[in-house]
Amino acid sequence: MSREVQVELTNMCMVCDGDKVLVEDRVGHAWSGITFPGGHVEPGESVVASVIREVREETGLTIESPRLCGIKDWMRDDGSRYIVLLFKAEKFSGALTPSKEGDVFWAERSGLLGMNLARSMRETIEVLLDDGLSELYYTVYSKITDGSHWVLQ
Amino acid sequence: MSREVQVELTNMCMVCDGDKVLVQNRVKPGWPGITFSGGHVEPGESVTASVIREVWEETGLTVENPKLCGVKTWGGPEGLLEIAFLYKAEKFSGELRPSEEGEVFWAGREELPSMQLASGMEETFRVFFEEDISELYYEKKDKDAPAGPWRYEDWQYTLQ
Predict the structure, then answer these.
(1) CA of A97: how far to CAs of A38, A48, A108, in Å?
(2) How far is B31 from chain A (nearest CA, A)?
(3) What pLDDT digit, counting tens, does each position of B29-50 carry?
(4) DSSP B70-128
(5) A78 or A30, which is more confident?
(6) Contact A39/A100 with Cβ under 8 angstroms?
């Protein structure tokens, strides 16, 4: 019996430098606003390799030893699951360079929630900042934030 | 453009009580030996809920606040074939009881390496025990080998 399911697999990384975190101001997407760099896990690469590549492509920085600290996931109408693997990185090298995804810059961690966050980033940041949390699971994922329901575990 | 892949989603949980960890002596053919309890993530269920359910089904214990500590992944030509979410739990309630998957019992952490481990458990322990390791990634040693029955010896791994 096959137990395989359809999954769209992605990653996101909060790069930290003391009290500052690296944010991306995503433009030209249905999903725009302040977020963290990230993208898809490609065939032939590990999840950790994918997050290192995405951060480099979108910010110019090469992170070292990113640490998995949680996941964000939901079921879609077609029965597939969307999964975002959430990482934190505190070591990096290179020069900050924006990509076509949007501008990248350092922001105060304490001011994050006051920024113009992309949809669902508010609860995503909670998982990244709270060591007691491992998962943000949407029981209803709405394209309008107000319509979403989720559990933090 | 669809960016979906066909993946098997599973979980595994190390339940700890001080220096002791809960192990399962798996009897099912295919993957016998000492392991931790775990199983599949079902559609419509959060990954964390699946961990709580599997531990309960296989050990009788109800874990509280299991914490994600890493993933174990298998790479294939089209993308990942399996993702196992690895959790740790230190709080639990209930009475220990075995399931048809195998006997369950407490073992000292230091005893683990000398036990009759299921294949791959030695490197899996490192993700559980070492804070700076988040992923155990397997890929085929010979990427051009024809597809055949799954054999542990055909895979090599990296810890990241």
Answers:
(1) 15, 21, 19
(2) 16
(3) 788 999 999 999 999 999 999 9
(4) EEEEEEETTEEEEEEEEEEE-EEEE----BTTEEEEEEEGGGGGGS-BPTTHHHHHHHH
(5) A78
(6) no
Burial class from Cβ neighbours inside 10 Å (0-12, 13-18, 19+) for residue B92 reads: buried
- A3–B65 CB contact, under 8 Å: no
Residue B138's DSSP bridge partners are B74, B157
Does B90 contact A at CB distance below 8 Å?
Answer: no
- Predicted interface score ipTM higher than 0.90: yes
CB atoms within 10 A of CB B71: 23
Report the 3 state secondary structure along A97-117: CCECCEEEEEEEHHHHHHCCE
Per-domain boundaries in chain A: 7-152
Q: Supply B88's token pair.
A: 């740790």
Tokens found for residue A1: 């019996």
Looking at residue B2, what is its pLDDT?
A: 66
B159 touches chain A (CB under 8 A): no
> 């999964």: which residue's tokens?
A83
**CATH class in words for A7-152:** alpha beta
pLDDT digits (tens, 9 = 90+) for A90-124: 999 999 999 998 999 999 999 999 999 999 999 99
Phi, psi of B51 (to 5 degrees): -65, -50
Nearest C-alpha neighbor of B102 from the set B31, B17, B40, B4: B31
d(CA A44, CA B75): 6
Confidence check: pLDDT of B93 > 70: yes
Render pLDDT for A28-58 as a digit per residue (tens, 0 to 9).
Answer: 777 899 999 999 999 999 999 999 999 999 9
User: Nearest residue on chain B to A138, judged by CA atoms?
Assistant: B46
Residue in chain A closest to B81 (alpha carbons) equals A4
CA distance A98 to chain B (A): 24
